[in-house]
């Protein structure tokens, strides 16, 4: 490009208001677009260092709250108001409706089952037998490998290494707990250190090595992460009283159950990553509000929704989300507005990541219940019309 015009930078002061203003003026000149709203913000440009390069301003996203919501978790206990950033009309109202129905039926019970974050190195050998021998050697050296990996982090702990021999290759997944951080970068650094020790100390011949083999499926959906959790595996469940369901949602448990039987078939036909109504809606809106890595929605939304009728005729509903990747500390969580949203739920800082994951899963449960009931009661389209989806 002989006429390339690079984006302006100020060496040593690139996250200042002067640098942001310089870039805005440059973009306005190059595109002939006035950045009137983009340039209005209350945050200090210096605060985005480490979060966004070439800072010019902000995209203002509508933020609403859903609730109140009674949650009976092991970490999230009490009544919560949930911040949700979205441009989709009816979404927050629908989630609030689900939260009310669940709350009036005793609340959502939420359980964190397990949590892991991975990096997945690949080792290649002359033969499958050599790969198997190396796999056995990794088992023998596990304590030292853990020591090497954990020397790079104050909170990350290498829990176990999964292994698969394919042809003359050994695919691995190094599984860590990462405290209150999401942990992708943490596990990458830790695994790199461990693998450098492995490459330097294995007595055999490793013909090829890659820090990533692709089976950690970072920021991609995979069936692997449905079976082996990446992030936090969380189950949210509630028993909805039939009278509450009829009074507040104009639906009944039997029709809800029949709908689920049929939509399960549709999900199988489509090969869906999630068989419930719309887990990604609630997760995405909470991720944007609380400063999570928004690309992790693609992994976090996968899961299994299950519905049953109780002997008393009430509706049991649960969602199992095996890979919720969220953080209460680090990354975008410390940006001013995102921190406020986390603090709204008392989910900012160390020791709060599991609490946040429980609230996210409970929110998915509420949204799924509300949308399923809207379909049963034939109120889905009319609700969108009423709350602005079809404005002129």
Automatic annotation (TrEMBL):
Q: Which domain of life is it from?
A: Bacteria
Q: What species is given as this protein's source? A: Zhongshania marina
Do you know which PROSITE patterns this protein is assigned to? Answer: HMG_COA_REDUCTASE_4
SUPFAM superfamilies with a match to the protein in the record: NAD-binding domain of HMG-CoA reductase, Substrate-binding domain of HMG-CoA reductase
What Gene3D superfamilies does the entry give? Answer: 3-hydroxy-3-methylglutaryl-coenzyme A Reductase, Chain A, domain 2, Hydroxymethylglutaryl-CoA reductase, class I/II, NAD/NADP-binding domain
What protein family is recorded? Belongs to the HMG-CoA reductase family.
Q: What is this protein called?
A: hydroxymethylglutaryl-CoA reductase (NADPH)
Enzyme class, spelled out: oxidoreductase
Q: What is its EC number?
A: 1.1.1.34
* Entry keywords, A to Z: NADP, Oxidoreductase
